[in-house]
C-alpha cells in the first residue's frame, strides 16, 4: 500500500523558497495524523547542503536530485525525475506549493501518473484516515471539499501564505538520500534561455505578507508614489485593481482578482478600490482587510475589517506617518 | 501555421454563485455563460499568428450544446472552424477526462501551436492545458505573456512571469501554450464577423466518434470527488474607523492595526 507524505521543495538560485517551509510543515501535521513519514524531494544543482535543515520543519527524509539540468525549473525535466521517484517509492500523498512552478508541475504530473489532483488548496485534513482537500472555486465565491479516489499519490498544491510554518526544531535534521534517476537529454524539449529579474526586488504579490493596492481612485500612475511610501514603511508590496492595470497605470502582473493574482496576505489595504466581485474574489482570503474609500457605500466596506471613509490622498500619507510610531 | 484554441465556457465573472440543494454542485439556472476570459487571449494570439504566418485557426470545445455559442463567438472573432465534443457521458467529468476528450479531438488535426487558458475562472484548476500536452506528448509553456515565433517557424520563445522574475523559455513546435493576461488585447467580434461565423464549419462529435470509451468519462470516472460545496467563510461587518480629520482617522487605524489586529 502507498505510504508516506511527500512534498516537492521549491528552490530558486539554490535558496529554498518560503512555500517550501509551509508545505513541509503541513506535511508533518498530516503525516502525524496518519502515522506516516514525511519525505521531501529537493531538485536542483549543488543543492545538497540545503537538505538536512528541512528536518527542523518536520522532514524525516530528503531525497536530493542533483543535476545541472535541474538548476532552473522546467516542466519536462522535473516531471521526468519526480515521476521516476514516485513510481519507485509509491507515496500516498504528494504536496507542492501552488506557486507558478508548483501548479504547472502538479498539473502535468497528475496527467502523467494518471492520478487525481486538487489545485491551490487552502486546507488539508485527515478524516477517517482519508486525505481531504479544501479549495476555493469561482475565485473564492465558494469552497469545495474534495476527496480522492483510490489512485495514488493524491496530488495537491497549497496556496502560498495560507499554511503556517512550524517553529523549527534546531535539534532535528533529516536523513539525506541521493536520488536514483535518469534524465535523457532528448526528452528535455524546453529550455530557459533567459531570466529577467523584476526591478526593485519587491516580493511578489502571491507571496507578500502585506499588500497595499490602488484602484481607479488613484487617478493616475504618478499618484502610486503615496502607496509605495506606505508600502515601504510597513514592508508591503503594491497591487492594483484591473481598472488601474487596464488604464496602463500599473503592470499586468500587479492585478489582483479573478483574472489576476489571487493573494492571501496578512494585511491587504485597498485604496480607491470599489470592491467589484472580481476584485474581492482575488483577495478575500487575506487575514485583515483595510479599505480606504471616499464613498461610504462602496462594496469593499462589506468585506473590510477596518474601513476608513475619506479621501485617500489625505488618509494614506497620514497613515504612513502614523504607522511609524509602531515600527 | 496551424493553430488550435481550446475553449471553455464558464459563468460570467459577475455571477453570484448559488449552491445547489445537493450541496455538491452550483445552481446554473440564472447563469450567463461566456468564453473563459483567458481563452479570449488564446483566440486573439492565434488570429495574430495566422495573420502573420498564414494557416488555419481551429477552436475546440468540450461540453453541452450551449458551448456552440462560445465557439461561434471565436468564429466571429476570426477563427476558421470549430469542433464541439458533446456527449451526455461527459457530464461531471474531471479535468483529466476533459483533456482526454480534447486530445482525441485534436490528434487527427494538424497543429503547430495549441492554446488553452492558464485556468478556467470556474473551478480554477488550470490543469487541462498541462494534461492535454501530456496526452499529446508535446511540451507545454504555461502562463505566457509574450510569444515570438522563430524565423524558420520551427520554435518559439515565450515569456513567463514567475514570482519576482520572468523567464524566457524556448521550445520546439508543436507546443501547447497557456495564455495569461498581458499576452494581448482580445478583439471584439465585428458585425460582418458575426454574419460570416454563421457559415463557418462547426463539427459536432460524440465520444464514440472519437473512438473513446464512455466509461472513462463522467462523474463515475472522477479521480477527485466533491464531498461538499460551501459558501465562503463570512467576513465583514467590520469597523468603520472614526475621527474628525483624516489625521485622526489615520491615527486610529494605525492603532487598531497595531493593538487589535496585530499586523503592524
Ligand atoms: C471578465 C472580467 C474580469 C475581471 N477581473 C478583474 C480582476 O481580476 N481584478 C479586478 O480588480 N477587477 C476585475 N474586473 C473589473 C471589475 O469588474 C471592476 O471594474 C474593477 O475592479 C473596478 O476597479 P476599481 O475598484 O479600481 O474602480 P472603480 O470601480 O471605478 O472604483 C474606484 C473607487 O475609488 C473611489 N475613489 C475615487 N476617488 C477617491 C479618493 N480620492 N479617495 C478615496 N476613494 C476614492 C471611488 O469611491 C470608487 O469606489 C473584471 C471584469 C470583468 C468583466
Ligand atoms: N471543457 C473544455 N473544453 C475546451 N477546453 C477546455 C475545457 N476545459 C478546459 N479547457 C481549456 O483548459 C483551460 C484551463 O481550464 P481548467 O484546467 O479547467 O482550469 C481553459 O482555459 C480551456 O482553454
Element layout with pairings:
The complex is a heterodimer of chains A (327) and B (264).
Chain A: E1 5-8, E2 11-12, E3 15-16, H1 18-34, E4 38-44, E5 61-66, H2 75-89, E6 93-97, H3 100-113, E7 117-121, E8 123-127, E9 130-137, E10 142-148, E11 154-158, E12 175-178, E13 191-197, E14 210-214, H4 224-234, E15 237-240, H5 242-246, E16 267-271, H6 277-283, E17 288-293, H7 300-303, E18 306-309, H8 312-323
Parallel strand pairs in A: 1-4, 1-6, 4-5, 5-12, 6-11, 7-11, 14-15, 14-16, 16-17, 17-18
Antiparallel strand pairs in A: 2-3, 8-9, 9-10
Helix pairs in contact in A: 2-3, 4-8
Chain B: E1 3-7, E2 9-11, E3 33-35, H1 37-53, E4 57-62, H2 67-77, E5 81-85, H3 95-106, E6 113-117, H4 128-136, E7 140-144, E8 146-149, E9 155-162, E10 165-172, E11 175-179, H5 191-197, E12 202-205, E13 224-230, E14 239-240, H6 246-259
Parallel strand pairs in B: 1-4, 1-6, 4-5, 5-12, 6-11, 7-11
Antiparallel strand pairs in B: 2-3, 8-9, 9-10
Helix pairs in contact in B: 2-5, 3-4
Residues 6-8, 36, 38-39, 61-63, 95, 98, 102, 116-117, 119-120, 125-129 of chain B line the site of adenosine monophosphate (AMP).
Structure description:
The complex is a heterodimer of chains A (327) and B (264). Chain A has 8 helices and 18 strands. Chain A is an alpha/beta fold and 327 residues long. Chain A folds into 2 domains: 5-187, Rossmann fold (3-Layer(aba) Sandwich), CATH 3.40.50.620; 205-326, TPP-binding domain (Rossmann fold). A 7-stranded parallel beta sheet of chain A has the order 7-11-6-1-4-5-12, sandwiched between helices. Chain A has a 5-stranded parallel beta sheet with strand order 15-14-16-17-18. A 3-stranded antiparallel beta sheet of chain A has the order 8-9-10. The longest helix of chain A is centred in the first third of the chain and has 17 residues, at 18-34. Chain A is elongated. The model of chain A has no long low-confidence stretch (mean pLDDT 96). Chain B is α/β, with parallel strands linked by helices and 264 residues long. Chain B has 2 domains: 2-221, HUPs (Rossmann fold); 234-264. Helix content of chain B is 27%, strand content 27%. A 7-stranded parallel beta sheet of chain B has the order 7-11-6-1-4-5-12, sandwiched between helices. A 3-stranded antiparallel beta sheet of chain B has the order 8-9-10, with no helix packed on it. In chain B, β9 and β10 form a beta hairpin. The longest helix of chain B has 17 residues, at 37-53. The N and C termini of chain B lie far apart (55 Å). The mean pLDDT of chain B is 96. Chains A and B meet through α3, β7, β9, β10 and β13 of A and α3, α4, β7, β9 and β10 of B. β13 (191-197) of chain A pairs antiparallel with β10 of chain B. Adenosine monophosphate binds at residues 6-8, 36, 38-39, 61-63, 95, 98, 102, 116-117, 119-120, 125-129 of chain B.
Amino acid at each position: 500500500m502507498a505510504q508516506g507524505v511527500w512534498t516537492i521543495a521549491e528552490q530558486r538560485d539554490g535558496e529554498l523558497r518560503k512555500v517550501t517551509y509551509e508545505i513541509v510543515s503541513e506535511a508533518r501535521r498530516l503525516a502525524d495524523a496518519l502515522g506516516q513519514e514525511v519525505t521531501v524531494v529537493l531538485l536542483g544543482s549543488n543543492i545538497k547542503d540545503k537538505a538536512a535543515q528541512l528536518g527542523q520543519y518536520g522532514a524525516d527524509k530528503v531525497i536530493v536530485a542533483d543535476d545541472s539540468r535541474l538548476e532552473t525549473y522546467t516542466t519536462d525535466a522535473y516531471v521526468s525525475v519526480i515521476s521516476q521517484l514516485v513510481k519507485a517509492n509509491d507515496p500516498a500523498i504528494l504536496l507542492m506549493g501552488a506557486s507558478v512552478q508548483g501548479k504547472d508541475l502538479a498539473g502535468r504530473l497528475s496527467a502523467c501518473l494518471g492520478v487525481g489532483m486538487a489545485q491551490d488548496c487552502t486546507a488539508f485534513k485527515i478524516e477517517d484516515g482519508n486525505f481531504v482537500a479544501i479549495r476555493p472555486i469561482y475565485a473564492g465565491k465558494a469552497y469545495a471539499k474534495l476527496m480522492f479516489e483510490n489512485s495514488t499519490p493524491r496530488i495537491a498544491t497549497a496556496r502560498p501564505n495560507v499554511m503556517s510554518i512550524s517553529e523549527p526544531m534546531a535539534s532535528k535534521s533529516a536523513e539525506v538520500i541521493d536520488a536514483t534517476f535518469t534524465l535523457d537529454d532528448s526528452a528535455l524539449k524546453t529550455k530557459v534561455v533567459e531570466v529577467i529579474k523584476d526591478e526593485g526586488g519587491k516580493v511578489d504579490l502571491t507571496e507578500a505578507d502585506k499588500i497595499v493596492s490602488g484602484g481607479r481612485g488613484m487617478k493616475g500612475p504618478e499618484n502610486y508614489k503615496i502607496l509605495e511610501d506606505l508600502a515601504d514603511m510597513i514592508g508591503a508590496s503594491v497591487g492594483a485593481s484591473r481598472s488601474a492595470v487596464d488604464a496602463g497605470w500599473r503592470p499586468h502582473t500587479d492585478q489582483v482578482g479573478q483574472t489576476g493574482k489571487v493573494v492571501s496576505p496578512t494585511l491587504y489595504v485597498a485604496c480607491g478600490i470599489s470592491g467589484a466581485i472580481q476584485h474581492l474574489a482575488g483577495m478575500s482570503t487575506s487575514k485583515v482587510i483595510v479599505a480606504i474609500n471616499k464613498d461610504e457605500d462602496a462594496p469593499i466596506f462589506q468585506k473590510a475589517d477596518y474601513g476608513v471613509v475619506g479621501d485617500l490622498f489625505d488618509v494614506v500619507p497620514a497613515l504612513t506617518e502614523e504607522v511609524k510610531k509602531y515600527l | 501555421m496551424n493553430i488550435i484554441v481550446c475553449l471553455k465556457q464558464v459563468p460570467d465573472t459577475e455571477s453570484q454563485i448559488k449552491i445547489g440543494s445537493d450541496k455538491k454542485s452550483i445552481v446554473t439556472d440564472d447563469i450567463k455563460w461566456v468564453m473563459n476570459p483567458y481563452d479570449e487571449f488564446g483566440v486573439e494570439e492565434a488570429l495574430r499568428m495566422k495573420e502573420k504566418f498564414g494557416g488555419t485557426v481551429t477552436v475546440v470545445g468540450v461540453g453541452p450544446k450551449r458551448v456552440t455559442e462560445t465557439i461561434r463567438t471565436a468564429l466571429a472573432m476570426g477563427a476558421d472552424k470549430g469542433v464541439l465534443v458533446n456527449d451526455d457521458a461527459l457530464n461531471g467529468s474531471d479535468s483529466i477526462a476533459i483533456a482526454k476528450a480534447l486530445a482525441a479531438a485534436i490528434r487527427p488535426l494538424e497543429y503547430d501551436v495549441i492554446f488553452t487558458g492558464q485556468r478556467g475562472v470556474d473551478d480554477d484548476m488550470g490543469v487541462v492545458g498541462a494534461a492535454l500536452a501530456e496526452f499529446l506528448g508535446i511540451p507545454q509553456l504555461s502562463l505566457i505573456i509574450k510569444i515570438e515565433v522563430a524565423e524558420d517557424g520551427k520554435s518559439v520563445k515565450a515569456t513567463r512571469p514567475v514570482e519576482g522574475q520572468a523567464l524566457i523559455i524556448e521550445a520546439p513546435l508543436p507546443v501547447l501554450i497557456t495564455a495569461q493576461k498581458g499576452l494581448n488585447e482580445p478583439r471584439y467580434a465585428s458585425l460582418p464577423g458575426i454574419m460570416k461565423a454563421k457559415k463557418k464549419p462547426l463539427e459536432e462529435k460524440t465520444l464514440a466518434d472519437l473512438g473513446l470509451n464512455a466509461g472513462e468519462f463522467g462523474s463515475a470516472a472522477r479521480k477527485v470527488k466533491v464531498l461538499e460545496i460551501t459558501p465562503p467563510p463570512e467576513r465583514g461587518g467590520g469597523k468603520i474607523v472614526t475621527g474628525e480629520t483624516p489625521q485622526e482617522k489615520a491615527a486610529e487605524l494605525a492603532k487598531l492595526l497595531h493593538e487589535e489586529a496585530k499586523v503592524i
